[in-house]
Design brief:
Blueprint: E1 4-6, E2 16-18, E3 39-40, E4 46-67, E5 74-80, E6 87-90, E7 99-115, E8 124-131, E9 134-135, E10 142-158, E11 161-180, H1 181-194, E12 200-203, E13 212-224, E14 239-248, E15 253-256
Antiparallel strand pairs: 1-9, 1-12, 2-4, 3-8, 4-7, 4-8, 5-6, 5-7, 10-11, 11-14, 11-15, 12-13, 13-14
Length: about 260
C-alpha cells in the first residue's frame, strides 16, 4: 500500500489543556516539532490531554510520538463540539515509541485519555499530531532500514571540549520509487514544502500501524529511458526513479556542558 505523511499538524500551540502538567515538561512541548523534548503529566498513572482546534476541523490521522506508555496502558480518543468531548473516536493499539491511528472526524475538540497504572513514572509524550496526511501516488519499490542508534554518552570529551550528549532511537531509512511523470510533481511539491528540516509523521504502509517522526535528509531524482513494469505514455522519458532518505528526529538532546 502507498506511504503517507502528515506534515500539516492541526493540533494548536494554544488551546491545549490537561488533567495535570509537570512545570518543567509543559504542554507546548507536544507541538514544538522536537520529539526529544516531552510533555509530562504531573503524576504517575496517566491522565488526559485536550486540544481546542477553535473550529470543527477535518482529520483522518492521529499520532503520538516518543511516548513511554507501557504495553498494558490504554489510550482513548474522544472528539466533539462541546467541552469536554464525549464521542469515542478510537482506542489505538499500543506500539512501542510511536503510535498512529487512522480515524476520521470533523470536530472542534480532541481529547486523549491515557490510563497506565503499571507505569511507575509519569506518562511522557514527545509530539501529538493530527490532520489529513498526504498519500503518495504509489507504493515504494523497496525500503531499507539503515540502522538504529541507541546510545547515551554523558560528559564525553571531544577535542578538549566537554559535552553532555544524549541521543536515543534515531532511525535512518531509505526508500525508492519508480513513478510516472504525472506522479513526480507530487513528490517534488512535498520535497519543496518539507525541505530538509521540518519533521513529519511518516507512515511507511498506509494499511499498517507503524510510524516514525522523521525529516527528509536526502532526495535524488533521476529520469529513466525505460520504466520496468510501467506503461509509459508521452515518450520513453515518462518515468523517474526517486530515492528518499529519511532521518528520524532524535529522541534525546545534545547540549554543551
Amino acid at each position: 500500500m502507498p506511504s503517507l505523511l502528515l506534515w500539516n499538524n492541526v493540533i494548536p500551540a494554544v488551546g491545549l489543556t490537561s488533567s495535570s502538567e509537570d512545570p518543567l515538561y509543559t504542554l507546548d512541548k507536544l507541538v514544538d516539532r522536537v520529539a526529544g523534548e516531552t510533555f509530562r503529566f504531573g503524576a504517575a498513572g496517566g491522565g488526559w490531554i485536550q486540544a481546542d482546534l477553535a473550529v470543527a476541523t477535518a482529520i483522518t490521522e492521529i499520532g503520538i510520538v516518543n511516548h513511554n506508555i507501557t504495553a498494558t496502558g490504554t489510550i482513548r480518543i474522544d472528539v466533539g463540539n462541546t467541552d469536554p468531548p464525549g464521542t469515542l473516536l478510537a482506542e489505538p493499539v499500543w506500539r512501542e515509541r510511536d503510535i498512529r491511528v487512522a480515524a476520521s472526524a470533523n470536530h472542534r475538540y480532541i481529547r486523549m485519555t491515557i490510563s497506565d497504572p503499571a507505569n511507575e513514572l509519569p506518562v511522557e509524550i514527545g509530539q501529538w499530531t493530527a490532520g489529513v496526511p498526504e498519500t503518495l501516488p504509489r507504493a515504494r519499490r523497496w525500503g531499507m532500514n539503515r540502522g538504529t542508534e541507541r546510545r547515551e554518552i554523558v560528559h564525553e570529551t571531544v577535542d578538549g571540549v566537554v559535552w553532555a550528549y544524549r541521543r536515543r532511537y534515531a532511525d535512518a531509512r531509505g526508500y525508492s520509487w519508480r513513478v510516472m511523470r504525472s506522479e513526480m510533481e507530487t513528490f517534488r511539491l512535498l520535497d519543496r514544502r518539507l525541505g530538509r528540516v521540518r519533521p513529519f509523521l511518516w507512515v511507511e504502509d498506509s494499511a499498517g500501524v507503524d510510524c516514525i517522526y522523521a525529516r527528509i535528509s536526502r532526495a535524488h531524482f533521476e529520469a529513466r529511458e525505460l520504466a520496468e513494469g510501467i506503461a509509459v505514455s508521452g515518450g520513453a522519458d515518462g518515468a523517474y526513479d526517486l530515492d528518499w532518505e529519511l532521518a528520524e528526529e532524535s529522541r534525546g538532546s545534545e547540549v554543551l556542558a
